[in-house]
């Protein structure tokens, strides 16, 4: 009887341990190739930590998000980051922020954050925003017009966008659930890949004429 209790307890411990260790830490960069020789290591998953006793207020501080970004570009938008690159104290804390400025009819084009969910708050203006679900949910568009004070969530990894539909400038602040969310702008990644993706392949994938694809690749 005692052996049965011991084996039962041991089995439960093993099960609990396997459940506790079944989730890997989220990747904090695009790739992290394993190597056998530590002296050749350049990156870890995240950043190396300084001695906590040497931490200073400046490690946790960033100014300037009150100032508008330069939207004089072909898309009419600007992003100011507040992630681990600007605030070293964010390392391992799993959060970051951005300020996004939009010129009239400017847009933050379709993109995805491979490592973060985003929650966006409109501070000024009117934005049309949305995201597209995965193939399993039939690529459904979930979109809404937002005004000052409205909040919208973009789930991790899903393609999403923001478009200023107003005649005045718009401003938003977004928080993201990673110290380094990453960003993949769809058009840039597909048509601006380096080296370029074979235009005949893209023509078939997007059901376009090859010359149209070559023209798009030349623009990106």
From TrEMBL:
The highest taxon in the source lineage is Eukaryota
Q: What is this protein called?
A: Germin-like protein subfamily 1 member 17
């Amino acid at each position: 009887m005692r052996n049965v209790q011991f084996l039962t307890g041991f089995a439960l411990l093993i099960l609990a341990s396997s459940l506790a260790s079944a989730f890997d830490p989220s990747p904090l960069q695009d790739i992290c190739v394993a190597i056998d020789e530590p002296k050749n290591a350049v990156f870890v998953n995240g950043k190396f930590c300084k001695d906590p006793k040497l931490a200073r207020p400046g490690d946790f501080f960033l100014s300037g998000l009150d100032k508008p970004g330069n939207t004089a570009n072909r898309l009419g938008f600007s992003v100011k980051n507040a992630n681990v690159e600007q605030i070293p104290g964010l390392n391992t804390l799993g959060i970051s922020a951005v300020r996004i400025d939009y010129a009239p009819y400017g847009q933050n084009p379709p993109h995805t954050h491979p490592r973060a969910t985003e929650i966006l708050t409109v501070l000024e203006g009117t934005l049309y925003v949305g995201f597209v679900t995965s193939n399993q949910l039939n690529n459904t568009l979930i979109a809404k017009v937002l005004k000052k004070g409205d909040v919208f969530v973009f789930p991790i990894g899903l393609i999403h966008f923001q478009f200023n539909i107003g005649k005045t400038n718009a401003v938003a602040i977004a928080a993201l659930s990673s110290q380094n969310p990453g960003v993949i702008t769809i058009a840039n990644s597909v048509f601006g890949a380096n080296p370029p993706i074979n235009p005949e392949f893209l023509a078939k994938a997007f059901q376009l004429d090859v010359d149209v694809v070559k023209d798009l690749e030349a623009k990106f």
